[in-house]
Amino acid sequence: MASRDKVSVSCCSPNTLPLDRLLASLAANVEQLGKRWEIAVRDQRAKGRRAAARRAEEADVPVQLHTPLFYATCALGGVLSTGLTHLAVTPLDLVKCNMQVDPVRYRDISSGFRVLLQEQGLGGFFKGWMATLVGYSSQGACKFGFYEFFKKCYSDIAGPENSQKLKTVIYLAASASAEVIADIALCPMEAVKVRIQTQPGFARCLTDGLPKLVQSEGAFGLYKGLFPLWGRQIPYTMMKFACFETIVEMVYKHAVPKPKDQCSKPLQLAVSFAGGYIAGVLCAAISHPADNLVSFLNNAKGATVADAVATLGLWGLFTRGLPLRIIMVGTLTGAQWATYDAFKVFVGLPTSGGVISSCHAATASHQVGHVKQN
């Protein structure tokens, strides 16, 4: 028994293991370890690919309608469409403002550009660009974001049947409500912009013009033109949104041979531009008297509405600078709608026009889900 144990110990002793068997055992262990590492790396890569695919799927999920993210997306689209388009037409806006406040030197469009080029050079055509960009970007965010919000609210208040019958009233009410908020954001920048553009030497840009205006007239001086601005912008925006929605609906109903959701994205964007341009022409005509008032009041320190009417006259109030403003606002509004809808398409949202039905669809689906849960 003792001898068997002794033999067993001696056989298991490493001193008795041949060298070739030792090397073969080590090689087998190394090969097995390598296979395990290879499997582990492959599994890790597969997990990474699955995680990346999962993230891509999550990123591809479209923005859900009528959620906080949807309204924020619409506000961002408003920043891009309104701020950039107003910045692009700054030369036209500059000549228009000078025609309104100094009709003797700026008699018409051609003389306005000529005088501006002679006195201030090419750089003068973009005076007030920073105030324009900041002011109208803020206005665009509030205008488009709150328009979608109020349209959903008023549609829900009216109910599915009444909202279809009163859709134009809903467009008008939602756009007016949104513009009230948007103009509070725009008014200070508009006051600085008009001073920079119409008073040579007042300031170089927004950074020195804003403190100078506050020092001169106080903080309330920034909102001196708020009521005329509301008088200009609220009718303008009501016409802009209601006419656009109606025109786009008519185009898809009578001019385009197939439903909107079956049309290509370029065709939908073309319809958005055309509808926006026609709406812009109507907007310019309706809001022009108030536009003349805003330019006059922001240019003349201490001036009142009565002073503006006495200086410009009723005919001048309605017609001075109107042709240029029709060109500018028509192009501006068409470009805004095209830019806004292009951004919506980019983030996976449908183009504008006829969203009332989708409001009800979202509400109905929410109610169905609620019933299922109960």
UniProtKB/TrEMBL annotation:
Lineage top rank: taxon: Eukaryota
Cell membrane keyword on record: no
Membrane topology summary: Multi-pass membrane protein
Keyword Protein transport: no
Any one Gene Ontology BP term: mitochondrial phosphate ion transmembrane transport
A single GO cellular-component term on record: mitochondrial inner membrane
Function: Transport of phosphate groups from the cytosol to the mitochondrial matrix. Mediates salt stress tolerance through an ATP-dependent pathway and via modulation of the gibberellin metabolism.
Similarity comment: family membership: Belongs to the mitochondrial carrier (TC 2.A.29) family.
Protein name (database record): Uncharacterized protein
Higher taxonomy: Eukaryota, Viridiplantae, Streptophyta, Embryophyta, Tracheophyta
Gene label: LOC100824225
